[in-house]
Amino acid sequence: MIVVPSSPLIPAVDLGKVASILATDYSVGADLIAGADDPDNVYDTQDEFYLPLTGFHGIDRPGPNLTVYVRR
User: Fold this and answer.
1) Among 35, 30, 31, which residue's Cα sits nearest to residue 62?
2) 66 with 1: CB under 8 angstroms?
3) Enclosing domain of residue 32
């Protein structure tokens, strides 16, 4: 399994060479969405809970979004 986080607070993970391996040898086992990326949500970059200070548009839970890839 490979777990890839994403959030408005962290830079996108550069999968580079792994992207082709993910496309051919893995499938998405789970897409755990904590919240949608909404421009009205204002974050504190030092917040370890990944919750916006204001906005809360599309937020379901604290934490980053996670994509879980499972080997076929």
Assistant:
1) 35
2) no
3) 2-71
